[in-house]
């Protein structure tokens, strides 16, 4: 029973440690984001594209949005099951360049289907 308590205690410490580490990393990233956003705003003020008051609000808005935004979905979860379709639209369908591109696309599609079967 004593061993189970020690394992539970270590698991709690591990969880607290991971949460602390994640918090530190998030703080670092937010500081980095603030610095980069401030540089961008300063550059825009320097060019005369915005006033200093607009730059201040811009930085604050960007920081608020970044803190409100949830975690970014990974690409693997949003990736479609099949390749994105590409359609060649041309006013002159007799163009040799368009024909060559269609042949190349057909060849790549055939190669893709062959690789998917393997």
Total DSSP helices: 4
Low-confidence stretches: none
Class computed from helices, strands and strand pairing: mainly alpha
User: How much beta, percentage-wise?
Assistant: under 5%
Tally of strands: 0
User: What is the oligomer described by this structure?
Assistant: single chain
Rg of Cα set: 27 Å
Q: In percent, how helical is the residue content?
A: over 70%
From the N-terminal CA to the C-terminal CA, the straight-line distance is: 53 Å
Mean pLDDT: 79
What is this structure's SSE topology?
Elements: H1 2-47, H2 52-68, H3 75-78, H4 96-117
Helix pairs in contact: 1-2
Can you characterise this structure?
This protein has 118 residues and is an all-alpha fold. The protein is 75% helix and 0% strand. Helix 1 (2-47) packs antiparallel against helix 2 (52-68). The mean pLDDT is 79.
Provide a quick synopsis of the model.
With 118 residues, the protein is mainly α.
List keywords for this structure.
single chain, 4 helices, 118 residues
